[in-house]
Design goal:
193 residues, mainly alpha, binds fe (ii) ion, elongated, Ferritin
Length: 193
């Protein structure tokens, strides 16, 4: 069986700008014929790896809620949380593969994610539907915020495709936030002008 050629070794690239978000492993770059400027790709890779960490963290939080929710709304919330998990997994793939398209290395291991995520840690001792709805809506809101910031950052880098991916992700995240938050909203919580 013929051996495939070894992939080209990534070469060192200049350090990304000094923000924490872009310090994510953007120091190695594979050659690509993608015509986005190298400096833009380096910065985009760092920022996308940051969002990737947030997104994988969010996905595990959805599963944590799916597995552990209890109470009268069990079956509805159990199914909803898994539906969100499945779509968030697609967001994970979009982000990771965009990193690689730009010549970077997608950093999606549990250990890399744990050290980089900007989301709050999901409490392990939650039980009721209300508790999980509250915690997961927090996580979705935090992630939606970072995705929206990411859109602006990608626009600044003139990377329209990464901005488009983050726009798709933030639009979906807002939808899921609505689905989850609706469990907290009712006549008693409606604030009239
Ligand atoms: Fe399941």
């Amino acid at each position: 069986m013929a051996r495939t050629a070894a992939p080209p070794r990534p070469r060192s690239a200049p350090s990304p700008r000094s923000s924490n978000q872009s310090r994510a492993n953007a120091t190695q770059l594979y050659p690509t014929k993608n015509d986005l400027p190298e400096s833009s790709r380096i910065n985009a890779i760092g920022l996308l790896n940051q969002r990737l960490a947030d997104c994988i963290d969010l996905q595990t939080q959805c599963k944590q809620a799916h597995w552990n929710v209890k109470g009268a709304d069990f079956i509805a919330l159990h199914k909803l949380f898994d539906e969100i998990n499945e779509e968030v997994e697609e967001y994970v793939d979009l982000l990771a593969e965009r990193v690689v398209q730009l010549g970077g290395i997608a950093e999606g291991t549990a250990r890399a994610v744990a050290g980089r995520t900007s989301l709050q840690e999901y409490p392990l001792n939650l039980s009721s539907g209300a508790e999980h709805v509250d915690a997961l809506s927090d996580a979705l809101a935090q992630f939606g915020r970072t995705a929206r910031i990411g859109i602006e950052e990608m626009n600044e880098l003139e990377d329209a495709d990464s901005a488009d991916i983050l726009t798709e992700i933030s639009r979906g995240t807002d939808k899921w936030l609505w689905f989850v938050e609706a469990h907290l909203q009712g006549e008693s919580t409606f604030k009239a002008e």
